[in-house]
Amino acid sequence: MTGTAEVRRLLGEVADAAEEFGREDAAQAVRAEQARLGAGAATVVVVGEKKRGKSSLINAIVERPGLLPVDADVATNVHLTVRHAEEPVARVFEGPEEAGRLISIDDIAEYGALDPLTQAARHPGVRHVEVGLPSPLLAEGLVMIDTPGVGGLVAGHTALTLAVIDRADALLFVVNGSSEFTESELQFLARITDRTATVIFALTQIDKYAEWQKILDRNRELLAHHAPRFADAPWHPVSALRYEEAAEAEADGRPDIAADRRASSGVRNLIDGLRGSVIARAEAVRNGNALKVAKTTVEDIHAAQLTLLESLRGDPELARAVAERRDRLKRVQSTDASWRSRLQTTMGDLERELHHQFGRLRNDLTTEANNKIATGTPEELRAFPREIDATVEAMWLDLDNRLRKGVNAIATEIAGAVDAEVASVSERNPLPDRLRLPAAGITEVEDPVQGSTAERMLTTIGPGLMTFGILGNIVAPGVAALAGVGATVYLQRVRKKREEAAAGRRNASLHLQMVLREIQTEVPAAIKGALRDLRRRIEEGISAQLADRVRAAQEVLAEYERMAAAAEEEVAGKRALIQSGVDELAGLRDRCATLAAGLTAT
User: Fold this and answer.
1) What is the pLDDT of residues 233-274, one digit of tens each?
2) Looking at the DSSP assignment, which residues form a beta bridge with residue 200?
3) For residue 163, how far is the Cα from the chain centroid?
4) Is pTM, for the whole model, over 0.70?
């Protein structure tokens, strides 16, 4: 099996060789790939409906009980990310600041979860909470993202979760042993069929539900019918509670009980599954990409040195061939070369495709939001701004995913046409600053039709006084008074609910209008700017490689002319020196191929 350390060593040798042969740009590209080997990590998105035990399971996997809040729901548009760090640390991200704001590990629930009483976010502006831990598993190259439940009131957070899954290496879908898949869970799984290659299922709380095996079997049947692509995905029955009890028993000096609890918890089996199917696979992909760049670099230099070796034979036909190649490369370098126009055309096509997708997403947002405004309860309308803002973020993630995939496809096509190599685009474009809208950005406005508070009270009390007057002529005054007061209280409550609903709809409409204005202004401009920058990067990368090849051809011709006038002894010495370099490069090329084959085999 090919390991990252072995690949890193080989890339260092390739970069050294490129520098030795005067290919500084190629050496820098290889060293950049070498640096990325240690920086990358496999991302696992943890998904499931509320109260399925997602957070408890993550706490068990990273061996940190109580880390993520388990008694409160994650806020609608907040994702909790857990990654490796040398010391425990937590940050909240509320705006465009890259570094975030440091908080205490103990305050994660304060910023990332809903208030259990009001079910409202305590800090509506927070969109992301990142936690760093000195966990051995995370240190191997794993990042875990805890998402809001997928069965919510509005599709905003579900859309955001779907967009995050597009960027993940794997999905850990969590259900518990209480019941089979819900309809919303099956619908969600059907929607992600084409979004992720690796799905792992965890059935939690097996300590609590004795019939969990029957539930697991039934879930397999439902998967085969509703999401057949995942029918053979691995299942891991787990108990985070038993795993926590194992740690406690270990600390109390009871190793036998600890071993029994740990084995019956199933958590270690899940961890091994994450290592094998997620961490190792992501590592292999990164290693494969790095080896591809290294092998292309070596082959390029090797071909140039072979040509230089041939030039020492004094063959005029070879000199003419090299000159023709140099001239051809110069034409390809020119500003009116066909690959440049093809790059411009395909980037323009991609921009139009992204604008069309943006229009569809905007229309879907408008339709769904208007439906919610028309039919939502006061509680749903209070949550409306957060849901809409989550949908906007999901919209941007969707567009950014499509942009990066489209650009990488274009870069591969254009570079292949001129026999060049362009690094893939992996960095993400951040959400435009003006789309980081305050979730409570619209304050309540008074309805002018309703008038002042005193006027509203008078119109409400009026029917109560009328009731009192009518009943006073029929029944005893005391009974009539009580009836009048009761009617007044009832009508006041009805009116208050009606006014709350009306105010909620007005506020929601204002927020929606603000959101639609901002996305119409910001998103098209952000797409255009990102594509412009990436097009320039592709163009500069290909141009640099072509310039290196022109320079190599020039060197061959210059050497040919010099050697034609040199003594035979000098030519022989030069030939031996170049042959040594050719042999060294051939060895590096073969080692790149061998390591790449080792990745394929695993």
Assistant:
1) 999 999 999 999 999 999 999 999 999 999 999 999 999 999
2) 172
3) 7
4) no
